[in-house]
Each structure stands twice: as structure tokens, then as C-alpha cells.
Amino acid sequence: MVQENLTQVEANIAAACKRAGRSRDEVTLIAVTKTKPVEMLQEAYDWGSRNFGENKVQEIMDKYDKLPSDIQWHMIGHLQRNKVKYIVDKVCLIHSVDSYRLAEEINIQAKKRGVVVPILIEVNIADEQSKFGVRPEETMQLVREISSLDGVSIRGLMCIAPYVVDSEENRPFFRKIKALSIDIEKENIDNVSMDILSMGMTGDYEVAIEEGATMVRVGTGIFGERNYNK
Ligand SMILES: *Cc1c(COP(=O)(O)O)cnc(C)c1O
Questions:
Q1: What is the per-residue pLDDT for 227?
Q2: I need a surface site. Which of 24, 35, 76, 180 has the fewest CB within 10 A?
Q3: pTM to 2 decimals?
Q4: Which protein residue's CA is at the shortest distance from atom 6 of ligand 1?
């Protein structure tokens, strides 16, 4: 099943890139593997996937040693400061930084290990109460503050768009965060680039690509529905 799904998702990504006049290699597919067993991750790996996304520190730690070392792990979920130390040298990108205090802790842990950790700023693009992320109008200020920490490097923005039935409803949000990333880029802030825009999930990744996503995070569309009560 994983292979068929991956082939389908890959075809959809290629088609969306084509519609948008973009090259296929501008978009990285992150296979979101949360709750899924390592056997399924291995299957995706064997079919060519190298970018995996998890939202829990414990799950990254459990899976990390059981799978090939050339996998790029992405932390895409809410991150508690006291857990930063466990993953800072395991992940290639932390997508979910939404406070100075969290960035500060990543900075401390990065310096201990002599590395610079690439991060994205998570924006609560639709101002939803239930969601993490900085408010759009406060994003520029947060980026400026975090840019002073030299153990982290801001590489772009991330958002989780609202859950909708018709993905077209999210197009305005994707446009809005893209515009925000352009505004930030124009400021030419030291230690900040806006090369990455992480947006789009199973329900809306094609629209997200049309609106400029450079990373899409697809779980259900590759691995099937998640079962949280195992
Ligand atoms: C679970 C998750 C996804 C994947 O969601 P699907 O709808 O299953 O594709 C993407 N991004 C984040 C942050 C997630 O937590």
C-alpha cells in the first residue's frame, strides 16, 4: 500500500508543480510517519523516501536507531523546552518554533554540541485558538529577536492550515504566509533566510504547492489513517 500511495502522491506533486510552472525539485516531500511502525517507514525508505516527519520527541528517539542513518528527520510537532536536548543532534530541521524561549533553549543545546540548528517559525496563519504558532502580525518581530541567536538559523516559515473539506478554502492562507515570507526576506535580516515554506498536508498539499510550498508534509495520504488508541 505504501508504494502505491507514494507513487500517487508523487504524481500529484509533479502535476501541481507543472500547473504552477515550478520545477519538481523545488518541492520536498516529507513523509509524516507519526504513530506508524518502523516496518512501514522502512517500506517508504525502500521506495526512495528519505525525509520523515514526526511530531513527538519520544517517537523520534524510538525510531531513530532502528532505521538507516541517511534519513533526514524533521521535527514538525510542538516541542517542549525540556526535550530539545534529546533531538537537537538527530533532526535536520525543526519546523515548529513559535517562541523566543524555545529558540533560546535550542540555541543553548546547539552550542553545547557545536552545531547550528536550522529552524522554521511556525505561524498560526488562520489565527485559530486551538493551534500553536506565532500570530502573523507578530512574526516579523519574533524573527528579529531569534535572529540574534547564532546557534540557530532561521530558514523559513511553516503553517498548519485549518482542517477543511475543500482545499481551495486554504488557498488564501497559503497566499498570506507566502506574502509574509516575502516581506521578511525583503528585510535582509542577518542569519535569516526564507528559502523554505513548509505547508500543505494530505488534504491540501497540491494547493499549497501551487501557492509556493517548498516542503509538503503528507501522512495519511502515504500511510493511511492513523490509529491513536492502540
Ligand atoms: C500529522 C501532521 C501532518 C500530516 O497530516 P496528514 O493530514 O495525515 O497528511 C502534517 N503536519 C503536521 C505538523 C502534522 O502533525
A1: 85
A2: 24
A3: 0.97
A4: 219
List CB contacts of 160: < 8 A, sequence separation 6 or more: 122, 131, 133, 201
Is ligand 1 within 6 A of the CB of residue 77?
Answer: yes
Instruction: Delineate the domains of the chain, giving CATH numbers in brackets.
Output: 2-222 (3.20.20.10)
User: Atom 13 of ligand 1 has which residue's CA nearest to it?
Assistant: 76
133 lines ligand 1 (CB under 6 A): no
Task: Please work out whether the CB of residue 201 comes within 6 Å of at least one atom of ligand 1.
Answer: yes
For residue 121, the cross-strand partners are 97, 157
pLDDT tens sequence across 137-185: 999 999 999 999 999 999 999 999 999 999 999 999 999 999 999 999 9
Reduce the secondary structure of 46-115 to three states and give it as a string.
HCCCCEEEECCHHHHHHHHCCCCCCCEEEECCCCCHHHHHHHCCCEEEEEEECCHHHHHHHHHHHHHHCC
Task: Tell me which residue has its CA closest to atom 12 in ligand 1.
Answer: 76
